[in-house]
Amino acid sequence: MPQTGPVLINDTKSKEESDIPWNVIVLNDPINLMNYVTMVFQRLFGYPRDKAEHLMLEVHQKGRSLVWSGGREQAEHYVHQLHSYQLLSHLEKAE
């Protein structure tokens, strides 16, 4: 006999995955100007100019910078927004 009620699909992330902080990493690129990257960090994350400049210099000098850490959904959202600003970025699980 076929089921007539609604079918529930378990589409939730595992508790372990949701408990782990995720890092948003921005990578250096040869295209974007330092002032532009600083502006994006201020606008997107609400960072004061000093912190945004520090992170931008870290990207420029070390090739990458951890710019935000937290829940996976918010981290994915930030990566998507950074991509819309044409900045190279990705997620990493925090260790």
Task: Supply database-style keywords.
46% helix; Ribosomal Protein L30, Chain: A; three-stranded antiparallel sheet; 19% strand; alpha+beta; 95 residues; 4 helices
How would you describe the overall organization of this protein?
The mean pLDDT is 88. This protein has a 3-stranded antiparallel sheet with strand order 2-1-3. Helix 2 crosses helix 3 (49-62). The chain contains 4 helices and 3 strands. The protein is 46% helix and 19% strand. The protein has a single domain (18-93), classed as Ribosomal Protein L30, Chain: A, CATH 3.30.1390.10. The termini are far apart. It is an alpha+beta fold and 95 residues long.
Short description:
The chain is about 45% helix and about 20% strand. It has about 100 residues and is an alpha+beta fold. The termini are far apart.
Tell the overall outline. Answer: globular
The count of strands amounts to: 3
- CATH architecture identity: 2-Layer Sandwich
The amount of helix comes to 40-55%
User: H/E element string?
Assistant: HEHHEHE
Look at the structure and name the CATH superfamily. Ribosomal protein L7/L12, C-terminal domain/Adaptor protein ClpS
**Uncertain regions spanning at least 5 consecutive residues:** none
Q: In total, how many domains does the architecture comprise?
A: 1
In quaternary terms, these chains amount to: single chain
Topology readout:
Elements (H helix, E strand, L loop, with lengths): L14 H5 L2 E6 L6 H12 L3 H14 L1 E7 L1 H13 L4 E5 L2
Antiparallel strand pairs: 1-2, 1-3
